[in-house]
Amino acid sequence: MNIIKELGAAKVVGITGHIRPDGDCTGSVLGLYNYLKDNAPDIDVNVYLEQPSDKLSYLNGFDAIKNVIEPDKKFDAFIVLDCSSIDRIEPFADGFKNADKTICIDHHISNDSFADVNNVIPTASSACEVLYDTFDAGKVSRNTAECIYTGIIHDTGVFKYSCTSFHTMEIAGKMMQMGIDYSDIIDNSFYKKSYVQNQILGRALLESVLFYDGKCIFSSVTRDEMDFYGVTGRELGGIIEQLRLTDGVEVAIFLYETGDNEYKVSLRSKKEIDVSRIAACFGGGGHIRAAGFNAKGTVYEIVNRIGEIIEQQYAQE
Ligand code: AMP
Ligand code: MN
Ligand code: MN
Questions:
Q1: CB 182 within 8 A of CB 152
Q2: What spacing in Å lies between the alpha carbon of 22 and ligand 2's midpoint?
Q3: What is the whole-number distance in angstroms between the Cα of residue 107 and the centre of ligand 2?
């Protein structure tokens, strides 16, 4: 796909990504915004996204992000990035559905091809990688390069997850050649933690529980704890990674409370278990080694159910 050709004569374009936008979502949305601003100046480009973390505010176009669609705004084309299903673009679904043409650029294996044109590459590390391949290489500016690099480092865990390929590194190398400050991007947008984030990380690790012969680990954070430390769910991102690194662990599970008996659940695995299949059993989705879902019930009910599914997967092998 060549994104500018795909847009044809479209003059008013909307761009969005999934709810609770992460680095890849924000990077791909703003990467496309910058690319179109630079190379298709006649297009009225509009970015709609739930407010991303301020850690990503160095990305050019961050200030242009709108959190609501203007009433009666009509789009010739609407592009969704890093999003596997239409229910994950609320509250922008109406703008998307009413557009003349819809395009999805994504890398989720669970993507259900909800747009008119779907460019979905499940083997790609990130939506940014898929997006970059829709660009003319010579037309990528430094601003766009910062966005693409950011998305890649976030979805590869700084080039370490199994989704990282030769092609991923090739694109990252090209972005480095554009003169971006890659060390700062990695430290400030990926590794940096606030003091309270470190405190709640420490607490979650302290209270983590190993089970299934040490192959699984889980931990959870309640709303009261989040209120006490003054953190939101989005700021708990690094906890699941540290749980996953535990020696001997195959599957890490992290839950945080979003309502009464309601949890956001993150799953990560190392080599054997397909966590996207577990998430799908709960109506969620994701990738083989990183997936998530929302569930009702107590922590123990949810973790027990996940444990049963893990046992079934081991039994099938
Ligand atoms: P997370 O644990 O939230 O970092 O999510 C890991 C991966 O699973 C990401 O690629 C998400 O896009 C995907 N994911 C998380 N939650 C859901 C959900 N409720 N539905 C579909 N995919 C999800
Ligand atoms: Mn994402
Ligand atoms: Mn992604």
A1: no
A2: 5
A3: 9
Strand order in the sheet with 12-17: 44-48, 12-17, 77-81, 101-106, 117-120
The pTM score is 0.85
Instruction: Tell the residue number behind the tokens 């606030």, with chain if given.
Output: 194
Q: Where are the alpha helices (DSSP H) in 133-181?
A: 142-155, 166-177
Query: Strand, helix or coil at 221?
Result: strand
Burial of 54 (0-12, 13-18, 19+ CB in 10 A): exposed
Cβ atoms within 10 A of the Cβ of 269, count?
25
Give the binding-site residues of ligand 1, using a 6 Å CB cut-off: 84, 266, 284-287, 290-294
Share above pLDDT 70 across residues of the chain, in percent, rounded to a whole number:
100
The two three-digit tokens of residue 112, written as one number:
């259900």
pLDDT digits (tens, 9 = 90+) for 200-245: 999 999 999 999 999 999 999 999 999 999 999 988 988 999 999 9
Interior angle at CA 109, CA 292 and CA 219, nearest 5 = 20
> What's the pLDDT score for residue 234?
83
293 CA to centre of own chain: 13
**283: alpha, beta or left? (left if phi > 0; alpha if psi -120 to 50):** left
Q: Within 10 A of 52 (CB to CB), how many other CB atoms are there? A: 22
